[in-house]
Amino acid sequence: MELNIRGDKITVTKSIKDYITEKMERLNKYFEGSKNIKASVIIRVRNNEQIIEVTVPTSKFTLRAEEKHADLYAAIDLVMDKLERQIRKNKTRLNDRYKNVIQFDVPVENDEDEEEDLKIVKRKNITTKPMDEEEAILQMELLNHDFFVFKNVDEECVSVMYKRRDGNYGIINVK
């Protein structure tokens, strides 16, 4: 796996790079042709928290995890555990769908609570009304939701307005 490690408001030292590289090698056992995969690792500092974000794009799907901790090395360990847990949790689904991308011949310990089948428990049909982004934010806040689907009159498409972790808003346009 090829790594692109960069820091935002932090200098990435050789020891940090070596530690991340060593930990990321744990994921190689899950991917066929892991040499063709280019993972992106971003390390940021916000206040007294060290934040590490890892994105592993493959040709069929993308793995992504982010962790925060006061200690950078602990954050690296946490994010690696999270990525492995994502793979183990979805191994059957991923293996059925993307046989040539990910392999699971390596024995993986079973986490009983993670092996539960996820299922859709509620389906909702909505009618969207045309509105601008300001009105969508207002509607979302009034409903006290984290996201809101609407017909965007400015972009002339269906959009999803969502609340970001930093308190700002994001928008996804479906064209």
Task: Give an overview of the whole structure.
The structure is a single chain. The protein is an alpha/beta fold and 175 residues long. It folds into 2 domains: 2-114, 2-Layer Sandwich (Double Stranded RNA Binding Domain), CATH 3.30.160; 130-174, Sigma 54 modulation/S30EA ribosomal protein, C-terminal domain (SHC Adaptor Protein). It has helices at residues 14-24, 72-89, 91-97, 133-143, and strands spanning 2-8, 38-46, 49-57, 62-69, 130-131, 147-152, 157-163, 169-174. The strands form 2 sheets. A 4-stranded mixed sheet has the order 1-2-3-4, covered by helices on one side. The chain has a 4-stranded mixed sheet with strand order 5-6-7-8, covered by helices on one side. β1, α1 and β2 (38-46) form a beta-alpha-beta unit. The chain starts with a strand and ends with a strand.
Topology overview:
Layout: E1 2-8, H1 14-24, E2 38-46, E3 49-57, E4 62-69, H2 72-89, H3 91-97, E5 130-131, H4 133-143, E6 147-152, E7 157-163, E8 169-174
Helix pairs in contact: 1-2
The secondary-structure class comes to alpha/beta
Strand order of the largest sheet: 1-2-3-4
Strand elements, count: 8
What is the overall number of helices?
4
Q: How far apart are the first and last residues' alpha carbons, in Å?
A: 34 Å
Main sheet: strands, sense, barrel: 4 strands, mixed
Residues in helices, as a percent range: 25-40%
Q: What's the number of structural domains?
A: 2
List keywords for this structure.
175 residues, alpha/beta, Double Stranded RNA Binding Domain, SHC Adaptor Protein, 2 domains, four-stranded mixed sheet, 27% helix, globular
